[in-house]
Design goal:
alpha/beta, Maf protein, 5-stranded mixed beta sheet, 21% strand, globular
Amino acid sequence: MKQLAKDIQRLLVNRHQTLVTAESCTGGRIATALTAVAGCSGYFQGSIVAYQNVVKERFLGVSAETIAKHDVVSREVVEEMVLGACRMFGTDYAIATTGYAGPGGGTEDIPTGTIWIGAGNVERIDTVCLHEISTREKNLQHATEEALRLLLNQL
């Protein structure tokens, strides 16, 4: 995971671009992975852990209607989180996550272990949906790694 963070840093610093994270289920793990690399202040602006819906709505501009229509664990919500984070922090890129990491927390339509990841900016957002079946910690570790990979692939 450290190599992914180093690669992201190299690209963004060379391009004079910035990044922020908006994390729900990963609870700051992506920000922790990024800041584990010395020199991250050259591109990493910060993070918001928006665990509750009210925080997603108030600070990231996620629509309550989107949550009601699609569920908080959805492509639509993670895309709104990416856009809201870019706007809130004034950054070039954002990574966002929302999910039911387990155990429990899922719904009939969206089972436990479903984690949506989004990475991008106001022009383009790439998303991936993970369907994890391991422990909470392993699910979150895998989601963190996949989030870094998703952004790196876009860069």
